[in-house]
Amino acid sequence: MMARKLFHMAFAMALAAAPLTGAACQQIPRAEVAWAKESTTMKFELFRGNRIIADGRINGHKVDFLLDTGAGVTTVDRAFARQIGLPKGQSIPAQGSGGTVEAELVTGVTLELGGLTLKNAPVVVIDLASVARGLGRPMTVVLGRELFDNAVVGVDWQQTTLSIARQDSFAPPPNATMIELGKGDDRLNTIPVAVAGAAPVKAHFDVGNGSTLSLPKSYWEKRPELASLPYAMSEAGGVGGMHPVRLVTVDRIAFGGQTFRNVPVTLSETKPSGAVDEVNAGIGLLKPFRVTMDLGRNRLYLEPLAKPPVFVRDRAGLRSEFDGEQLTLAFVSPGPPAARAGLRKGDRLVAVDGQRVGKDYFQSAASGWNQRAAGETVRLELGDGRKVVVTLADYY
């Protein structure tokens, strides 16, 4: 019997699921691995600039996989699972960044990506509707450790290409820096990250986290140089609900042999009961490098880009949810540009600079309006007929 909690999910500002733990891992069958090709290179979509989406199949059905190194078990949306005929699984508890929810464990699933086929794989089935609204697209399958434990995965951000290779035929990139990764009982890798000049801390390595770095209160409240930083309030979470966070700018973060300046960082304000509480390094820390992940052997290879991208930051002060038809403001931070322009929680956004919000909103250039340069103005039209002008600013 699996009476204890089997895995946890950290949905930081959208998604980063996590793992089976301890003795429970031994009770879950591992996938059978088969290769059609030793290596495959394929295009991927960098959705909203911070999510890796790749075409694959689950039980023969075409699907968009969201790749997530922090997902200990591949996660399937409950409605989609029923649509493709997955049976109801064993009920298990799951920890989200907002608290504990119920999930199902289903075995015997086939997953395909590139030349890799994973047969008889376990998956966790859970309601991902709230996560999909926050992300802004249907969220059907999060492909996790079944991929990363059995393949070497390379990411070229500039070409938006993904390489999937057998471990036994992989040769490390000649000019890359190799980082030995830690690995806990939960099967998640950790990487050393130094925050604001302090000694490196072990951070969970999580490309499902769309931000740069997330710090729990148990870490930052003991650091006066972090606790005293100017901040703006926001929300983070997903499965289990949302919780308040501070948005701050940290003067320096050291990772992968590089030091980055003026880095946007999230500080959790609370630890909801049953929620995940850990230092978490997200996709933003990886984008200055060409990345090769040999996580099954606890190795990460980094090649610095000649022109690393600027860290993405919000310059409006709001969080929205998109249901495929309309964009609703779910949170407006008091003080920053959105609030000063008169935007309120519950407002429905119907147009950006004259471009109507439709089902393809997050595939359009208009969707990134809140990340444009400080000082730019954006004209928004709301569902109640109001028209407001937001002047963007670096507000934290």
Report mean pLDDT, rounded to a whole number. 88
Helix and strand content put the structural class at mainly beta
Query: What's the story with the biggest beta sheet?
Result: 6 strands, mixed, barrel
Strand content: over 45%
Radius of gyration: 20 Å
How do the strands line up in the largest sheet?
6-7-12-8-11-10
Helix content bin: under 10%
> What is the 3D shape?
globular
Low-confidence stretches: 1-26
Q: How many DSSP H or I helices?
A: 7
What's the gist of this structure?
The protein is mainly beta and 396 residues long. The protein is 8% helix and 46% strand. The protein contains 7 helices and 31 strands.
Q: What does this molecule look like?
A:
The protein is mainly beta and 396 residues long. Helix content is 8%, strand content 46%. A six-stranded mixed β-barrel has the order 6-7-12-8-11-10. A hairpin with a 5-residue loop joins strand 16 and strand 17. The termini are far apart. The N terminus is likely disordered.
List its traits.
396 residues, 6-stranded mixed barrel, 6-stranded antiparallel beta sheet, 7 helices, globular
Question: Secondary structure elements and their pairing?
Answer:
Blueprint: E1 7-9, E2 17-20, H1 24-27, E3 32-35, E4 39-43, E5 45-47, E6 51-58, E7 61-67, E8 74-77, H2 78-83, E9 90-96, E10 99-113, E11 116-126, H3 129-135, E12 141-143, H4 145-148, E13 152-156, E14 161-165, E15 177-180, E16 182-183, E17 189-195, E18 201-205, E19 213-215, H5 217-220, H6 224-227, E20 232-238, E21 241-255, E22 258-268, E23 280-281, E24 289-294, E25 299-304, E26 318-322, E27 327-332, H7 337-340, E28 348-352, E29 355-356, E30 377-382, E31 387-391
Parallel strand pairs: 1-9, 7-12, 8-11, 18-23, 19-22
Antiparallel strand pairs: 1-2, 3-11, 4-14, 5-6, 6-7, 6-10, 8-12, 9-10, 10-11, 13-14, 13-24, 15-25, 16-17, 17-18, 17-21, 19-23, 20-21, 21-22, 24-25, 26-27, 27-28, 28-29, 28-30, 30-31
